[in-house]
Write a structure and sequence with these properties.
This protein is of the alpha/beta class and about 475 residues long. It is built from eleven helices and 22 strands. Strands 7-8-9-10-11-12-13-14-15-16-17 form an eleven-stranded mixed β-sheet, covered by helices on one side. A five-stranded mixed β-sheet has the order 19-18-22-20-21, with helices on one face.
């Protein structure tokens, strides 16, 4: 392509010539012709007249399509596989294909394309509204290496998923968002290698639908955002016991649902491998005005949780949450038949249903005694809010902070807050404070179980943080 003027940064630019897209690979002269020429690599491999060589001189090199591994043709109006064996002939080493938002109308078309890609590992065909098999299909070797499959917004049903699934023997991740899936069915001898399942934005009939996928042996992550579920229950396990359902589940997302009862959070403690939970934007979250209180309650109720709403639960925060929980509900425990003497300790079934972890917390920290409970502070922001300056005297690069904290907040909870606030690694914090009334004197905050008010800390005092 000859041109009279080109910008200085033309090399590498994307251009449009008519309806054809290309990339500028060469700018300069092409003897014996006159003028400045652009050498372009067309997106359509059939469009070019040569490979960057003219009259025996190599001016530029085009991409080697047979070396491509990752291809995206999103929103390119792809409707069929093309001429027979054309893909395998030009792009034999493809492993990852994005075919989302195209014009494919049937699963058969997808199979035709994939049959020419023997190393296919990742396939995204989301936003293609297509027809899927309605009866059992013969199992082929087309998807033998497929590990990740995205079928979002394809109008596929769960029944159709199970009909196609025998052809996905190595599948590890399956994305099925926004498909109007309302009912599930137990997979029989299919999807047994699945590690991640995303059913977000499908309005499931109820939480019991989850029981039907609960025995997939390798399932580590389930994403159920905006699925309309209002409760979760694992009926095979009693208070304080672990369910046989979801044996490998580590990460669960149930945000943007209709869960309103604490009983569903209690049930999650039955999951034997659960480490991470996302649960924001549920009606349950409105039951506590203070988000810190809400977080503490969830942490105390799910013993093995390590990450809550994408925020790590550090050991100090867990200890503070569990100690507070043990004290806050101590009077209810005693009223329900609980007692520090094991021989007289018989809490009611009603109490255990509401607080199934309470017995294990008593074993961990000791049962609360009546004298201790008489001095308990409610698990809410109350009394006076103290405005405190927080300094790190050994870290001059750390700017002082000003925080408002309730005087009923325990030292353990203050440490948990500082772990998150200062992003300090998991080493032990040492706290002390200075007061204008105690000029030149530093008081150590040495009892994690005592509230700030125990140390007579007042507005304007300075908390010193060392680690």
């Amino acid at each position: 392509m000859m041109t009279a003027w080109v910008p200085s940064d033309a090399l590498g630019r994307r251009i449009l010539c008519g309806t054809e897209y290309a990339t500028v690979r060469y700018v300069g002269s092409v003897p014996p012709t006159a003028g400045i020429w652009l050498g372009v690599e067309w997106d359509d491999p059939q469009r070019g007249k040569h490979n960057g060589t003219h009259e025996g001189t190599q001016y530029f090199k085009c991409s080697q399509l047979n070396q491509l591994v990752d291809i995206s043709v999103r929103e390119c109006a792809v409707s069929h596989a093309g001429q027979k064996e054309e893909i395998s002939r030009t792009c034999a080493n493809i492993s990852h294909i994005n075919l989302s938002k195209n014009l494919m109308s049937s699963w058969e078309t997808v199979t035709d394309i994939a049959s020419q890609v023997p190393n296919l590992e990742t396939l995204n065909i989301s936003e293609n509204k297509m027809k899927f098999p309605s009866t059992s299909i013969s199992v082929s070797s087309v998807f033998l290496k497929l590990r990740i499959l995205a079928l979002n917004q394809t109008e596929i049903t769960w029944t159709e998923v199970l009909l196609c699934a025998p052809g996905w023997p190595a599948l590890e991740e399956l994305y099925l968002t926004s498909n109007n899936i309302t009912v599930l069915k137990r997979p029989e001898n299919v999807l047994q290698t699945l590690k991640l399942l995303d059913l977000s934005d499908n309005q499931l009939l109820d939480g019991n639908q989850l029981h039907l996928i609960a025995h997939l042996p390798r399932l580590e992550q389930v994403i159920l955002r905006n699925t309309g579920i209002s409760s979760i229950h694992f009926p095979d396990a009693g208070f304080g016991c672990k369910t046989k359902m979801f044996p490998s589940l580590k990460r669960l997302a149930i945000n943007d649902n209709k869960i309103s009862q604490w009983s569903s959070i209690n049930e999650l403690d039955k999951l034997p491998s659960l480490q991470s939970l996302q649960c924001h934007n549920n009606p349950l979250m409105d039951t506590e005005k203070n988000p810190d209180t809400l977080r503490q309650l969830i942490i105390a109720k799910i013993g093995q949780l390590e990450v809550l709403n994408k925020s790590e639960i550090l050991p100090a925060e867990r200890k503070g949450a569990e100690l507070d929980y043990r004290k806050i509900f101590g009077n209810d425990w005693i009223a329900a038949g609980g007692h520090w003497n094991p021989e007289r300790n018989r809490p009611s079934e009603e109490f255990l249903a509401a607080h199934p972890r309470y017995p294990s917390l008593c074993l961990k920290y000791g049962a609360p005694e009546e004298g201790e409970l008489k001095r308990q502070q409610p698990l809410t922001l109350k009394n006076q809010l103290l405005t405190l300056t927080i300094k790190c005297p050994d870290k001059p690069e750390q700017k002082p902070l000003e925080k408002k904290l309730p005087d009923s907040m325990t030292i353990q909870r203050v440490k948990g807050l500082l772990y998150r606030l200062l992003k300090i690694p998991g080493s032990e914090l040492k706290l002390s404070y200075e007061s204008s009334k105690l000029e030149g004197k530093e008081v150590e905050l040495d009892n994690d179980l005592k509230p700030l008010q125990f140390y007579s800390i007042e507005n304007g005092d300075c908390v010193l943080v060392r680690w």
